[in-house]
Amino acid sequence: MTLLSAAALILSGCATITRGSEDVLVVNSQPQGAQVQLSNGMSCTSTPCSFKLPRRSNLEIAVSKKGCREVKTNVTHKTADSGAAGVAGNVLVGGIIGLAVDASTGASQDLVPNPVEVTLQCR
Q1: Where are the chain's structural domains?
Q2: Model confidence over 36-71: pLDDT tens digits?
Q3: Is cis: bond before 54, omega within 30 of 0?
Q4: pLDDT in tens, 74-113
C-alpha cells in the first residue's frame, strides 16, 4: 500500500498527466467571420474558432476578411502557473523522469496570448 501511495504522489506532480501536452487556442476577431491561417498549415474559415495545438507551439497567425486589412500576430508559449506547480511537485518528490517527460512534452507550458483577440480595420 505504501508503494501505491508513493506512486500516486509522484504522478500527481507530473504536469504531463495533470495538464496534457496540448492546449486549445481560441481566435476571435472584431468583426467576426474572418478567416484564420496558422503558420503550421491549420486554418478556419470563420471566427471565432479554435485549434488544438501542442503547448510548446510557436506560430504566426494571419487573420483576414474581405474589405479589411490583414492582421498578423505571433503566439508562443510560457511556463504556466499550474505547470510550474507540476514541475515543483516533480522536484520535491525527486521525479527526475517526470521532469524529463514534462520538459519534452511541454506540459508545463501555456500558449500566449490565448485567446487571440484581433480587431480588423475595415473600409
Answers
A1: 2-116
A2: 999 999 999 999 999 999 999 999 999 999 999 999
A3: no
A4: 999 998 775 445 555 555 554 555 555 555 566 778 999 9
d(CA 91, CA 33): 46
Task: Tell me the CA distances in angstroms from 57 to 13, 23, 32, 65, one per residue in order.
Answer: 23, 10, 25, 25
* Separation between Cα atoms, residue 13 and residue 88, nearest integer Å: 7
Q: Which pTM value belongs to this model?
A: 0.72
Distances from the Cα of 23 to the Cαs of 20, 46, 50, 53, in angstroms?
8, 20, 10, 5
Angle CA 14–19–23, to nearest 5: 145
Cell numbers 507540476 label which residue?
Answer: 86
| Cα–Cα distance for residue pair 122/69, rounded to 1 Å | 6
Specify whether the CB–CB gap between 18 and 45 falls below 8 A.
no
